[in-house]
Description:
This protein is mainly alpha-helical. It contains 17 helices and no strands.
Amino acid sequence: xxxxxxxxxxxxxxxxxxxxxxxxxxxxxxxxxxxxxxxxxxxxxxxxxxxxxxxxxxxxxxxxxxxxxxxxxxxxxxxxxxxxxxxxxxxxxxxxxxxxxxxxxxxxxxxxxxxxxxxxxxxxxxxxxxxxxxxxxxxxxxxxxxxxxxxxxxxxxxxxxxxxxxxxxxxxxxxxxxxxxxxxxxxxxxxxxxxxxxxxxxxxxxxxxxxxxxxxxxxxxxxxxxxxxxxxxxxxxxxxxxxxxxxxxxxxxxxxxxxxxxxxxxxxxxxxxxxxxxxxxxxxxxxxxxxxxxxxxxxxxxxxxxxxxxxxxxxxxxxxxxxxxxxxxxxxxxxx
Length: 336
């Protein structure tokens, strides 16, 4: 087994790759129709990248200083929301559309994360199996509720909570040991099966690219089951939970458990918050000038755009971009 430093490296490596997928997905989001292959790429990434990011967030949940953690997350969300408001006002000339208690855009994740952490604290003394089972059942039922699916905020909060809570329940050290296991054991066999399923799913996304877009209403839970383009039931959502969990294990299994990129990638993976906050403004600039659309027009351009998005992640991972959030974190609470 590797040292404790390698355990930390593994999760930082994972977070770096996941934030790259987040930025790539957001880069493609407004240009799906520009290339016949984009729906396949977009659906594949979106199937597991946010649930897995949410799971990792749950892994680092702690009951310690929970009120401060929640306040800090909400403050980050308001900071992000304020930046978007300024951006829309300056570039889009849409001043006055700041809605404090309605969130459908990028800051949703920070606000929802605050809710999840608060709820996990409330149920900390309950039987975890009961809580997880209940969360899955409610997530399945949410697809029948028009009020829930009518709000991307509430639908994501309810449907994706089981992934966060699974992260809360999993021991990080045991998970790292599981990922490091290379001997022919049941753990290794499970990882191999999940990796095969992941590559098989990727192949299906490519082969059935004409139909794969129909899954988006299930992958991003914003559509009533009754309005889905295929028959969708509680069992469909349950299969989604199981399938995404398998894809997540397969994806995590290919992430190195040691420092990579001369330690750079591991270091950059520690600063995903600032990338999440600021990348959207670069995307808006690229969209506004039609550069993104042109970069989605051909397969070669798509590969180039993926490399550009990874470069954006690397740039935004630099220490200088952490100054505002570090200032908030260090000064929001009174010092003893």
